[in-house]
Amino acid sequence: MANKKVSQTIRTTIVGTERSTFEIIKEYAEEKAVVGDEVVIIQLYPTVGIEDVGATDSTTLHLQNKMKQLGWTKVHMVNLFSQIARRKPLAGDLKTVDKENMAYVKNVISDVGKRGKIVVAWGNSHSTNLIVNESKKELLEFLVSSQPENVYQLVADSMETEAEGTHILFLGLRYADDEWQLTGYPAKAQLEKISAQVQKRKPKTEDKKQPEEKKQPKRGKKVEKDVFKDNESA
């Protein structure tokens, strides 16, 4: 039997700065290499930046190995947070919702969602972290209002646990030999669940502020204006 020579190239594009990565795009370089879908994968945080464009982390490697089987020709990988993590972030490292990144992600979803699918794959890491849940809540509100029927998650054939936005690395480590497929992601139900968690974790504030005690003018001194009345009319 004669030998055959086969080659195929997956092109990598990274959008970001020295410290942040907003998007990583993986696509088949040859125009007719694979006919398939374009998708957006939403995860937690990036581990590769513009200076590491030739590097492939474990999560991306598992994804590349399944792209052809899933029928994906172009994948946009975005995250809830843009700061590059060289190690798993501690709870205290995630101090605020990444507004700049969130705006970027919403633009990618709006664009790609017109012709492709949106896949939630942020897993359950930091699932009790208030900032992470506030970020999920904001993005889920956007997905439910803009593309409620176009949100999916990845599952494997032999998975026994109920999926809730399963992370690609989890699938790659436990179900690398299984066939992966898309199933609907319960965005509305997850939004309700996460909203309740956020409400429970938010610090309680007093419903009514105690009025400041007015100072009584000294006897014999003329007071031309009442400062509190000025504040009320300002």
General description of the model:
- The protein has 234 residues and is an alpha/beta fold.
- The chain has six helices and seven strands; from the N terminus they run βββαβαβαβαβαα.
- Helix 3 (130-146) links the parallel strand 5 and strand 6 (151-156).
- Helix 1 crosses helix 4 and helix 3 (130-146) packs antiparallel against helix 5 (187-201).
- 29% of the residues are buried.
- Mean pLDDT is 86; it is low at 221-234.
How many runs of DSSP E, i.e. beta strands? 7
Structural class: alpha/beta
Percentage of residues in helical conformation = 25-40%
pLDDT averaged residue by residue: 86
Question: How much of the sequence is in beta strands?
Answer: 15-25%
- Give helix and strand order, one letter per element, not per position: EEEHEHEHEHEHH
Morphology:
globular
Query: Count of helical segments?
Result: 6
Number of domains: 1
Q: Cα-atom Rg, whole angstroms?
A: 25 Å
What spatial order of strands do you see in the largest sheet?
A: 1-2-4-3-5-6-7
Low-confidence stretches: 221-234
How far is it from the N-terminal to the C-terminal residue, by CA?
90 Å
- Main sheet? 7 strands, mixed
